[in-house]
Design goal:
The complex is a heterotrimer of chains A (about 325), B (about 325) and C (about 325). Chain A is of the alpha/beta class and about 325 residues long. Chain A contains 10 helices and 12 strands. Chain A has a domain of about 220 residues: 3-Layer(aba) Sandwich (Rossmann fold). In chain A, α7 links the parallel β7 and β8. Chains in contact: A-B, A-C, B-C.
Chain lengths: ~325, ~325, ~325
């Protein structure tokens, strides 16, 4: 049984003026200890998927329209809040994009980690602090700095603190929402390596949300590409990087300026992401797709090769040009 | 401490209606990534096929304001009060001075809907004219405070330095005096009368408004679009008027509309105690002064002006509150 | 003379309560007409400050900037106003660099009106439409407001504004960093096309080495206010001399699962730019330090033909 399985999950934001279909019929699996990269651009619905798993959608507008979120077999959508709270932080944790706002500015960092430990365990206060300090050391921050405040740390170190908080209770699943996007590239390298090391040490599975295919290449086992609320391609790292099939995936790879190749002109994907409150019927990528025809209506996921799924009628029939 | 990129997250979201078979979509395939802008079907204008209304900032504000019932009530009531004040001479056949001692202390009747006062003058007329004065002086006081506040706030906020320090410290001194006391002192010094009262009440409003403006200017000054304006060669004055002030006015407008209520109370209060505006010019406060004497056997003189003050306060406060909510962009989503 | 811009020993310091912040410290370079200089570095390196100082958006503390041979650090207000027509800037954040109260038409008209470039209203309208076409904004969006448009379109407005005065030189301050990947490519292509069509000269500031490789002729790497390496664009990627550049390149994750990059990850954090200690700014993170590194600040010198680096041990490290 997979650690986490999303089955046909749909999440909408409903306001009095409009309905935003943030996530539509998303299905994916994460096995124990595995890292799944969820790739997409802004507005694709990646963050909503993560918030949905953790059940921290905005109360007034977030709605689960269909589907299940099976964590170790239990459907999280139907779980009572009290049980969900035990899972949050204890078995499933989240790291957010901006370390500046994820930390409470008036609480010592060690206390913020301690709070996470205390919520899910029955240790004595002394034991809690000892474990919190241990976590600090594990993420590469000397324990003496535990009594400092967030503003005294640099961005990279703040993110380390956030990682410490997230891993303090050895969760089974870590949701990381663009954890290094806001960091400088040299610091990003440090933090990514830290995350990979800790992942192995704690045997934590991870859902890594990012738009950076380079980060995916370094850290993930499987990849899901998301576009306009749907998963359009899903497979192992090799499947996606060596044999991308969906025109959007191919377009993404082609539009990134590369360090190795010398190109005169980039080939961007023409057009723009559709408005999530006004998504087209049928294939949502059709308008920007170089291959689309009048027949491109609603698409189902096709298994083009074992374990490699694509949401496109053309794929599986011919090889793509990368 | 500074290894964060200066990158900020982008919020992408096209707009528009999908039409697979439109000529635009076919044209799009030909553009192949070169300047796709002109043939693109994803346009805000084409939403649902209709031309979208011009979504200016003020248009959005008006739209949100209209949805707030209390604010609409306040707006309507305030407009009614203002209209009553403006058209007072037409609305009543009486003049506010005509005395008719025979008819003093008449209770409300068809000829005198609010009754008559101690000199037999029609009370409704006096209250309407009184409203004229009260509202006029309140607005004058507002104009005065806002005008001075903008000048001082702009200088302090934009130029800074020694000038700012002097202005701020002077304001500190003035603000340390309780506003009521300040108004009383200035009113006593200047004497009674319309413009004198306006200044007396207005002075107390300068300090908080000035701080508001200065704060806003400091916030806006650092915005990148101000830097962008400098980069294309705008002069200091142009930057101040075209870039900074339009973005600074919102909180000021809220403060002003709430302030009218306070001004009216202050003016009436001053007139009530004999400063401010004195008879024979009627003003709600001074009508109440005379009415106080006779309150036990003839309540209309004290009560009706009081009700008017209450209604005015209510109207402008509701409107101001609604305006503040409508102007707050964060409440939108 | 083919050099449009020459900067020599430029310094920009800021006064802070803790002392002088050396944002730009003794930077010298030049850009030839029609070429692009990529200025690369992470946050705190001073590249944005450098861009703004070149344009006199903030006054230089010391040093010289010559535009078309003429010194511009001490020009009069009037001359500066004229200069604005020649030297423009595209900002990073298409959100905050456009005044939210003005529509597209007003935003593009602004620079034109400020310099009185059009005599009649119809001339102005034509010019605005022309600019919108050039940068690829649908003419239907003439009266749209910034908050109604996505990042890519907003950035196009920013580009239109920069072009409105027909400048010769444009500082592009991280113009695509805030945009989605697929839109980045569109904007980069646009900037390249414009350069070819109009013979524009760019100073392209970015932290993204892959972008800068693609668009630059020459690249300059900055660290904590100083230039640590500079050479021809493609050459930098074939061979790096300075330890920081090496580390920077090896830190970039590559979207290719068959290439394993050099795993030596740069340790440590940026030193403080306030009252910097004597010696090389990179010394605290450098794996190759020697004695001199902590006492003497290295000078930019030509180590290989047209390839400059500022490092005491550059020859030993690279086996030269």
């Amino acid at each position: 049984m997979a650690l986490l399985e999303l089955k046909n999950l749909s999440i909408h934001y409903e306001t009095s003026e409009e309905i935003v279909q943030a996530v539509n019929h998303v299905s994916l699996k994460i096995e124990k200890g595995e890292t799944l990269g969820l790739v997409g651009e802004t507005g694709a619905g990646k963050s909503t998927t993560a918030y949905g798993i953790l059940r921290v959608l905005p109360e007034t507008t977030g709605r689960y329209k269909s589907g299940e979120i099976l964590f170790e077999g239990k459907d999280l959508v139907k779980l009572p809040e009290a049980e969900m709270r035990r899972i949050r932080g204890g078995q499933i944790s989240m790291i957010f994009q901006d370390p500046m706002t994820a930390l409470n500015p008036v609480i010592h960092v060690v206390d913020q980690i301690a709070e996470a430990i205390q919520q899910h365990n029955d240790y004595s206060p002394a034991e809690v602090i000892r474990r919190a300090n241990e976590m600090l050391e594990t993420v590469g921050i000397p324990a003496e700095r535990g009594s400092e405040f967030p503003h005294q740390f640099s961005g990279g170190m703040k993110q380390r603190v956030v990682i410490a908080m997230a891993l303090a209770c050895s969760p089974k699943l870590l949701l990381a929402d663009e954890p290094t996007t806001a960091l400088d590239v040299t610091i990003q390298a440090q933090v990514l390596r830290l995350m990979n090391d800790l992942k192995k040490k704690f045997d934590t599975a991870m859902l890594l949300i990012t738009h950076d295919l380079g980060v995916v290449a370094e850290s993930c086992n499987r990849v899901a590409i998301m576009y306009a609320s749907e998963i359009v391609e899903y497979g192992s790292l090799e499947d996606i990087f060596d044999r991308p099939m969906h025109p959007y995936t191919i377009g993404l790879f082609n539009s990134i300026p590369s360090l190795e190749k010398d190109v005169q002109r980039l080939t961007p994907i023409p057009g723009m992401v559709p408005d999530p409150s006004n998504l087209p019927e049928g294939c949502k990528f059709a308008l920007r797709c170089p291959r689309a025809t009048k027949q491109c209506g609603k698409q189902e996921m096709i298994e083009a090769e074992p374990g490699h799924f694509v949401r496109c009628g053309f794929c599986g029939k011919e090889a793509s040009n990368v | 401490m500074t290894d964060m990129k200066t990158k900020k997250s982008s919020h992408q979201g096209g707009h528009g209606h999908h039409d697979k078979n439109s000529p635009e979509s076919k044209a799009l395939k030909k553009t192949n990534g070169k300047h796709p802008g002109n043939n693109h079907p994803f346009d805000p204008e084409r939403r649902h096929g209709k031309r979208r209304r011009k979504h200016s900032q003020w248009g959005d504000v008006w739209f949100r304001l209209r949805k707030n019932k209390l604010a609409v009530i306040g707006m309507v009531l305030a407009s009614v009060l203002i209209l009553l004040a403006v058209f007072a001479p037409i609305l009543t056949p009486y003049s506010q001075e005509t005395q008719d001692i025979q008819n003093q202390f008449q209770m409300p009747s068809w000829e005198h809907p609010l009754g008559t006062d101690n000199f037999g003058r029609d009370l409704l007329t006096r209250v309407l004219y009184g409203g004229r004065t009260s509202l006029l002086v309140a607005f004058m006081a507002l104009m005065f405070s806002v005008f001075v506040a903008i000048i001082l706030g702009a200088i302090a906020g934009y130029y800074g330095g020694m000038l700012e320090m002097v202005i701020m410290r002077m304001t500190d001194v003035i603000q340390s005096i309780p506003p009521v006391l300040l108004a009383v002192v200035v009113s006593a010094a200047l004497g009674s009368g319309v413009w004198q009262t306006a200044i007396a009440v207005g002075i107390a409003g300068v300090a908080p408004n000035m701080r508001l403006i200065r704060g806003q200017i400091l916030a806006v000054r650092g915005e990148e679009y101000v830097e962008a304006a400098v980069a294309i060669g705008s002069s200091n004055i142009a930057v101040m008027f075209k870039q900074i002030l339009p973005n600074v006015l919102s909180p000021l407008i809220v403060s002003a509309s709430m302030g009218i209520g306070g001004n009216i109370t202050a003016i009436s209060g001053l007139s009530f105690i004999g400063l401010g505006v004195r008879p024979p010019i009627s003003e709600w406060g001074n009508i109440m002064t005379s009415g106080l004497e006779y309150i036990r056997r003839f309540w209309p003189m004290a009560v009706f002006p009081g009700i008017m003050i209450m209604l005015t306060l209510f109207a402008f406060n509701c409107f101001g509150d609604g305006l503040r909510d409508a102007l707050d962009p964060k409440l939108k989503h | 003379m083919s050099e449009l811009l020459q900067v020599e020993h430029l310094k920009k310091y800021f006064k802070t309560p803790r002392g002088m912040l050396h944002a730009v410290d003794d930077v010298s370079f030049s850009i030839e007409k029609g070429k692009t200089l990529g200025i690369v570095g992470e946050s705190g390196c001073g590249k944005s400050t450098l861009g703004r100082t070149i344009l006199s958006l903030t006054p230089a503390t010391d040093g010289s900037i010559r535009f078309e041979g003429k010194e511009i650090t001490d020009v009069s207000k009037r001359e500066l106003h004229e200069l604005r027509r020649e030297m423009q800037i595209i900002f990073q954040d298409p959100f905050s660099s456009l005044n939210p109260r003005y529509c597209v038409k007003e935003l593009i008209a602004d620079p034109i009106k400020t310099h009185h470039l059009c005599k009649t209203k119809s001339e102005l309208d034509d010019r605005i439409k022309e600019l919108m076409d050039t940068v690829g904004i649908a003419s239907r969006l003439l009266y749209a407001y910034p908050h109604e448009l996505d990042g890519g379109r907003r950035q196009r407005i920013g580009i239109a504004r920069a072009l409105a005065l027909n400048p010769k030189f444009i500082v592009c301050d991280e113009p695509v960093s805030a945009l989605d990947v697929s839109i980045q490519a569109q904007i980069l292509n646009l900037l390249q096309d414009l350069q070819e069509e109009r013979g524009l000269t760019y100073a392209f500031i970015t932290h993204d080495l892959s972008v800068v490789k693609h668009i630059s002729d020459e690249i300059m790497v900055m660290y904590l206010g100083c230039v640590v390496e500079s050479c021809e664009a493609k050459g930098l990627f074939r061979r790096q001399l300075h330890p920081y550049t090496k580390g920077l390149l090896s830190a970039i994750p590559i979207p290719n699962i068959h290439i394993k990059r050099d795993q030596s990850i740069m340790q440590g954090e940026l030193a403080s730019p306030v009252e910097p200690k004597p010696g090389c700014r990179f010394a605290n993170r450098c794996p190759y330090t020697g004695d001199k590194c902590f006492s003497e600040n290295p000078v930019l010198e030509e180590v290989l033909p047209a390839h400059f680096a500022a490092c005491h041990n550059v020859r030993e490290i690279n086996g030269l």
